[in-house]
């Protein structure tokens, strides 16, 4: 809905820990609530990505080239989705939520900066991916992200309800 | 421990028990003391492998079943025969035995058979054996049946592989595969058949092979020694008569004593039978006797006894036909496989092997060169259990060896060494032998053998190794070294069964060395690989360190312990090394663990006759019915004596289960740069000339295909279809979308289109002389090559002379010449584009490897170009500043490299899997390949000069095991279109204390692994990081060691003796082109050095890192070795410091791929005149790359020494004569790594720096 538009800046809704300041009253459906809903849906997608990532790395041992080819195209969309709702939260002035997402955002940027020499999109190089260190890192990364997205999912749900209720 | 121990040990136990059983105790003692006593032959066999011997004894004692006894016996007989051949040489102690046995012998021959199994089996087996035998026999006895000979021929011939198969089919069609083993090296059973020996002198070959086996056992490689025996089990009905038993090398040595008793007519099968019988007799006796003390002796004695026994056995056998207990081995001439060069090298390196080969050798050595491939194929060796034959064969081998350099003896001795000399005993016995021997003189060999046998093991070792060891690193030596150190221990441990020496103190390797005070840290003799602290038997069975080494020969029990030691844990592999002796096994079923797919190997344990326990995953597996039959001995129920279980390096002929598609033919495509730059450099002339010369030597069969492409700014294809009157050139100028003009006629059959190919090669060098095209469209040309090759796979050889400047994959110059000597940051070590990597992965997927020859005078971005070879399992050659007239030494190098490149063995569509005991895991791989799975490397091509390294980590504690094993299996298609699997298995003990870990450090392997890791670090992080990591490796390991040694003064920098060279080697690495800073180094040179570090096998890499320096103006014959009738002086190694260079001297530096001879200003004019051919120092030219052949003693010595060094490596190094004060001397002086340079520490300074870091 549109009415959120102006509300956004005003109410720093924040959910989460008690620290969060909740505040102003508003209409039933604020921009912040919309942000949370959007984030909720997109996070569901990201969870899917993370699961896919984990499965792919589990199967990597079978065929690294094919797995890298399936994984690499998904990297950029995932990062863009995450960056997108970070921006949305920024617009909604959901500072706490944004803050919680900043480490992951930074991590994504760092990954992009340090990616191997590749002509195509993506991060994973089939020639080095089987290196035990890199493989372990990627697998750990997959599990961590899954955990983060799951927690974030429930956090967004909570945030959304909180916003709706408080308004 | 117990549990695990159980498994590993059990294995030993399984095998041993029988043998050792009673014997064990006696054996142990027996070995040492016994040696002398033992009768010649028997003892020899027994002793040699002391372990084996023991086993035999054990076997005997416990069960009659085990053929071991027989085996030995058999071998004896053979020996006797052989002895005859040799006649005089060997006394025939054995013969005596033999003779008696002979009576039995005939039966005896069968004994093997008999033993085993029921007649039926025998029958089945026999056929194979017969054939094999026959063939072998024929080989051996030339006269023998022609048919056989034919077989032989097969072996010899290129067809060899086929031959084997054919044989099988013929003979044994139905059943079983034969096992052909070329050489079975088990020390224990030297028997070998020498079927392969086609050449003619079967005996000689046989002998050698046998000998070899024996020898080897001692130290390193059991391979060589053992080998050989391979029998074809097939069930043919064979011609019983033929059984040649060759077996035995083990005994062989001892054989000396054996004397050939009867060689007899060896030619005849009869003879064989006799031998066989003899052997059998022996065996039997042995068994019986076993109880009694020393086996060897017993055997001798036994004969009589055996006879009875044997008979029984025999009888059964006889029905089957036992013929030949002897295993026939076809030895492959094993050597064969390896080209002559290899042989030489190997020979050098592994005296043992050499010997073996030698056996076949006489011919082989010389001839082999041609048929490398063939050689491999053929090897069937009889194994030994039937030692009888072996004995004979061994002898010959020895002889050969002797000829070669006395190796044989060594070998034998070595074998025997464990058990002291058999000779004495044998001698006594022998009397009979001589007579026989005389009769069959056929081959024989050379008399040297006698002397050796008598020698004490120690001596023998010493002597032999040297000879053999042209190459310094031979395992053999190491083995020897160890011996002296803990003979007692070994024996003890062996008798204990598998426990390793862990408990034993290792005084030498743990001796603390104060580095800052030890002025001459570098030993004057080459550094050998340490031998894992295993019991004697396992030691003998263990893989040769030349093929397979671990940085820590004692594996720490836990990751925590490993972390404490601060040393890298990893494996260094040279899996496709040219071997002179290789058991080749043809079998319907390749026995593997059902859960982890490990191939059965010498370190598994047999729980009982029908079950074996995997040594990697501990699963209990059934022994297949077919495996119960031992083709070598023709006996049944002895799975532990099969060649697979007696050799840690074996090759299987794989069935269609191991193929995804029919084996591909050999396909070679040459992609040549013909831009102006390339034409100017003039490499085409050299290449075309080399190709013309070696066209017939390209590995391949009748299906071999070849093609050519050239490119500048366009791509030119050559239609060579048969029927054309001249080659047609097709030009494709659309480089953005390359297509193949006539896909079917660009790769043509080498034989059908040979004339056209020759026309093209003759025309090519002049076709582009006037070209003005300066661009290079390498990328599109590679894409076209990929399209051309993808239906079949094969090898693409790319010759490039400049930066690719057009089309896909074009590169920009990235090097800033001002940064060449920067001490800060070295950039651009990684690729600029992933085009070449992607292309390589595509190629790898289509089983195509890309080999790059970069001949450029300017920066060509090797870092990017090298990717095309790195990930497709190709190889990289780099010739900086190449010009065919201006830089003749590079031209010469290219020429020599091409010769090797074109003619060396090659394996196609290969994969290599590395497995290790549960608890360990592969961490990172180094080399040129694509990692397809956590333990699977995809290798489009495999060549004998490729080395690999693997980092390991310890995932689970190894507390419940006392041994860990590593197995690499290389599955490839030979150039003859045969699918083969080469399996290496390495066994190491597990230790729980830090001191034991330090005691077992293989410093050379550790350095090579560190170098590989440092290359990765340089590319992924930065060069300075990598350098810091190298220094930290020294600092950490030495401080970790220091903290374990409490009583040392803290001010001193102390290292265990095993690590005393570690700081020196690390300093050498820091000054190596790849890692040095501050000295002007071109980026391509640096990247090439890194490529070499990643892909060179250890032996070559070590010379690159730390060259060898010798003083050559005063060569003497003191300590010289004899190789092929040449006396090769062995000057001591000098440390790499200018302080060792005196103006009055001349020094040779061996850098692996380059030799420098530095002539001091005050060098004796006599030397200059006698060796260089110039009257005085002033008249020596600035550029001199050859030593003239002058007829003076010093010239002869210098040349034979250099030739010997050259022969020990695949690529012939270029020689530079450097005058003191000539500009070229900087090249020489930069290798003096112990000296200070502007940018780097001297060795002493480096030590102080390390000490400072430790104290921090």
UniProtKB/TrEMBL annotation, chain A:
Q: Where are the transmembrane segments?
A: 33-55, 79-105, 146-165
Q: Which family does it belong to?
A: Belongs to the cornichon family.
Question: A GO CC term?
Answer: membrane
Q: Which UniProt keywords apply?
A: Membrane, Transmembrane, Transmembrane helix
Specify the protein name: Cornichon family AMPA receptor auxiliary protein 1
A Pfam cross-reference name: Cornichon
Q: Sorted alphabetically, which InterPro entries does this protein's record hold?
A: Cornichon (IPR003377)
Task: Give the UniProt subcellular location, in the record's own words.
Answer: Membrane
GO BP annotations, alphabetical order: vesicle-mediated transport
Query: Primary place of residence?
Result: membrane
**What does the record say about its membrane topology?**
Multi-pass membrane protein
Instruction: Write down the superkingdom of origin.
Output: Eukaryota
């Amino acid at each position: 809905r549109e009415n959120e538009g102006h509300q956004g800046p005003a109410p720093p809704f924040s959910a989460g820990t008690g620290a969060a300041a909740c505040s102003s009253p508003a209409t039933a459906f604020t921009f912040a609530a919309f942000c949370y809903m959007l984030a909720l849906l997109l996070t569901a997608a990201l969870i899917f990505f993370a699961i896919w990532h984990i499965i792919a790395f589990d199967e990597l041992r079978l065929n690294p080239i094919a797995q890298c080819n399936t994984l690499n195209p998904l990297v950029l969309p995932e990062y863009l989705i995450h960056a997108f709702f970070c921006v949305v939260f920024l617009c909604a002035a959901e500072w706490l939520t944004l803050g919680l997402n900043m480490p992951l955002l930074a991590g994504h940027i760092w990954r992009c900066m340090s990616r191997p020499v590749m002509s195509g999109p993506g991060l994973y190089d089939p020639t080095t991916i089987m290196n035990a260190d890199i493989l372990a890192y990627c697998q750990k990364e997959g599990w961590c992200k899954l955990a983060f997205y799951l927690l974030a999912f429930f956090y967004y749900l909570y945030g959304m309800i909180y916003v709706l209720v408080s308004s | 421990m117990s549990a695990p121990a159980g498994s590993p040990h059990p294995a030993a136990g399984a095998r041993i028990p029988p043998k050792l059983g009673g014997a064990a105790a006696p054996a142990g003692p027996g070995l040492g003391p016994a040696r002398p006593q033992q009768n010649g032959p028997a003892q020899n066999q027994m002793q040699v492998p002391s372990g084996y011997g023991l086993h035999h004894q054990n076997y005997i004692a416990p069960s009659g079943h085990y053929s071991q006894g027989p085996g030995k016996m058999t071998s004896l007989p053979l020996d006797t025969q052989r002895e005859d051949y040799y006649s005089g040489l060997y006394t025939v102690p054995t013969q005596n035995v033999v003779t008696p046995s002979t009576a039995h012998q005939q039966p005896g021959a069968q004994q093997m058979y008999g033993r085993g199994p029921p007649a039926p089996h025998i029958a089945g087996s026999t056929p194979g054996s017969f054939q094999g035998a026959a063939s072998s026999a024929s080989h051996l006895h030339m006269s023998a049946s022609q048919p056989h000979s034919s077989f032989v021929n097969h072996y010899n011939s290129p067809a060899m592989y086929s031959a084997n198969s054919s044989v099988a089919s013929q003979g044994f069609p139905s059943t079983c595969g034969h096992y052909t083993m070329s050489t079975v090296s088990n020390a224990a059973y030297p028997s070998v058949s020498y079927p392969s020996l086609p050449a003619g002198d079967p005996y000689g070959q046989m002998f050698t092979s046998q000998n070899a086996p024996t020898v080897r056992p001692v130290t390193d490689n059991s391979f060589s020694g053992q080998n050989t025996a391979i029998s074809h089990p097939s069930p043919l009905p064979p011609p019983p008569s033929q059984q040649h038993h060759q077996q035995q090398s083990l005994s062989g040595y001892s054989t000396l004593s054996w004397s050939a008793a009867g060689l007899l007519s060896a030619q005849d099968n009869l003879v064989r039978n006799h031998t066989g019988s003899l052997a059998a007799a022996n065996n039997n006796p042995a068994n019986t006797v076993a109880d009694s003390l020393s086996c060897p002796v017993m055997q001798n004695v036994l004969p009589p006894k055996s006879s009875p026994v044997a008979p029984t056995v025999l009888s059964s056998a006889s029905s089957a036909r036992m013929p030949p207990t002897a295993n026939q081995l076809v030895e492959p001439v094993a050597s064969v496989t390896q080209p002559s060069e290899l042989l030489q090298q190997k020979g050098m390196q592994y005296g043992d092997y050499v010997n073996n080969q030698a056996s076949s050798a006489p011919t082989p050595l010389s001839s082999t060169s041609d048929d490398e491939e063939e050689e491999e194929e053929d090897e069937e060796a009889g194994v030994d259990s039937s030692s009888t034959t072996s004995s004979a064969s061994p002898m010959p081998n020895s002889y050969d060896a002797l000829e070669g350099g006395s190796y044989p003896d060594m070998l034998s001795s070595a074998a025997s060494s464990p058990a002291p000399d058999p000779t004495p005993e044998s001698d006594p016995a022998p009397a009979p032998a001589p007579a026989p021997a005389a009769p069959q003189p056929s081959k024989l060999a050379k008399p040297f053998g006698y002397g050796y046998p008598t020698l004490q093991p120690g001596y023998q070792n010493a002597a032999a190794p040297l000879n053999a060891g042209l190459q310094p690193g031979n395992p053999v030596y190491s083995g020897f070294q160890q011996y002296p150190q803990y003979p007692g221990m070994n024996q003890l441990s062996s008798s204990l069964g598998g426990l390793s020496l862990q408990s034993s103190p290792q005084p030498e390797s743990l001796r603390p060395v104060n580095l800052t005070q030890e002025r001459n840290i570098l030993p004057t003799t080459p550094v050998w690989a340490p031998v894992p602290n295993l019991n004697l038997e396992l030691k003998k069975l263990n893989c040769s360190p030349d093929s397979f080494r671990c940085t820590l020969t004692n594996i720490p029990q836990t990751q925590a312990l490993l972390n404490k030691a601060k040393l890298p844990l990893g494996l260094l592999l040279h899996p496709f090394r040219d071997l002179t002796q290789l058991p080749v096994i043809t079998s319907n079923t390749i026995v593997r663990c059902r859960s982890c797919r490990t191939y059965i190997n010498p370190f598994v344990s047999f729980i009982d006759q029908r079950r074996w326990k995997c040594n990697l995953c501990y699963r209990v597996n059934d022994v297949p019915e077919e495996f119960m039959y031992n083709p070598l001995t023709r006996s049944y129920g002895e799975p532990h004596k099969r060649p697979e279980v007696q050799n840690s390096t074996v090759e299987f002929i794989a069935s269609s289960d191991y193929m995804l598609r029919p084996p591909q033919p050999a396909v070679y495509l040459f992609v040549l740069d013909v831009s102006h730059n390339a034409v100017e450099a003039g490499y085409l002339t050299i290449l075309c000339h080399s190709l013309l010369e070696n066209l017939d030597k390209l590995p391949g069969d009748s299906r071999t295909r070849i093609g050519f492409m050239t490119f500048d700014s366009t791509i030119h294809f050559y239609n060579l279809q048969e029927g054309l009157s001249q080659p047609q050139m097709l030009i494709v100028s659309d480089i953005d979308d390359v297509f193949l003009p006539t896909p079917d006629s660009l790769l043509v059959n080498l034989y059908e289109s040979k004339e056209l190919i020759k026309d093209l090669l003759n025309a090519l060098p002049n076709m582009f002389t006037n070209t003005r095209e300066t661009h290079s469209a390498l990328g599109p040309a590679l894409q076209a090559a990929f399209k051309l090759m993808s239906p079949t796979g094969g090898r693409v050889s790319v010759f490039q002379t400049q930066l690719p400047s057009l089309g896909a994959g074009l590169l920009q110059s990235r090097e800033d010449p001002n940064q060449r000597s920067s001490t800060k940051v070295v950039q651009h070590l990684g690729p600029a584009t992933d085009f070449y990597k992607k292309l390589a992965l595509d190629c790898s997927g289509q089983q195509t490897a890309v080999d790059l020859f970069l001949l450029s005078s300017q920066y060509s971005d090797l870092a990017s170009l090298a990717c095309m070879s790195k990930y497709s399992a190709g190889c990289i050659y780099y010739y900086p500043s190449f010009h065919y007239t201006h830089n003749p030494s590079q031209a010469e190098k290219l020429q020599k490299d091409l010769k090797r490149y074109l003619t060396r063995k090659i394996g196609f569509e290969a994969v290599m899997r590395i497995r290790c005991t549960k608890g360990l895991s592969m961490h990172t791989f180094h080399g040129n390949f694509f990692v397809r799975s956590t333990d699977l490397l995809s290798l489009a091509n495999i060549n004998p000069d490729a080395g690999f390294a693997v980092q390991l980590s310890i995932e689970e504690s190894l507390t419940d095991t006392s041994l860990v094993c590593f197995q690499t299996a290389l599955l490839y298609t030979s150039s003859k279109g045969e699918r083969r699997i080469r399996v290496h298995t390495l066994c190491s003990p597990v230790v729980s204390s830090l001191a034991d870990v330090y005691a077992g450090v293989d410093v050379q392997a550790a350095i090579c692994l560190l170098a590989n890791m440092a290359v990765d670090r340089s590319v992924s992080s930065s060069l300075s990081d990598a350098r810091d990591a190298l220094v930290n490796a020294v600092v950490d390991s030495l401080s970790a060691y220091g903290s374990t040694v409490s009583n040392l003064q803290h001010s001193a920098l102390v290292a265990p003796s095993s690590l005393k060279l570690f700081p020196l080697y690390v300093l050498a690495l820091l000054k190596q082109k790849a890692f040095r800073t501050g000295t002007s180094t071109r980026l391509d040179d640096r990247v090439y050095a890194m490529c070499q570090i990643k892909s060179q096998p250890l032996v070559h890499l070590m010379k690159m890192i730390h060259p060898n320096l010798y003083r050559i103006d005063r060569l003497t014959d003191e300590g010289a070795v004899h190789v092929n009738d040449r006396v090769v002086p062995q000057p001591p190694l000098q440390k790499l410091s200018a302080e060792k260079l005196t103006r009055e001297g001349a020094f040779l530096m061996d850098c692996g791929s380059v030799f420098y001879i530095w002539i001091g200003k005050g060098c004796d004019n006599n030397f200059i005149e006698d060796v260089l051919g110039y009257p005085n120092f002033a008249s020596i030219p600035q550029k001199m790359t050859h030593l003239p052949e002058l007829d003076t003693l010093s010239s002869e010595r210098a040349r034979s020494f250099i030739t010997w060094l050259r022969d020990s490596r695949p690529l012939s190094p270029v020689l530079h004569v450097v005058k003191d004060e000539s500009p070229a001397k900087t090249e020489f002086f930069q290798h003096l790594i112990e000296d200070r340079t502007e940018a780097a520490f001297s060795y002493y300074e480096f030590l102080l720096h390390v000490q400072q870091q430790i104290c921090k």
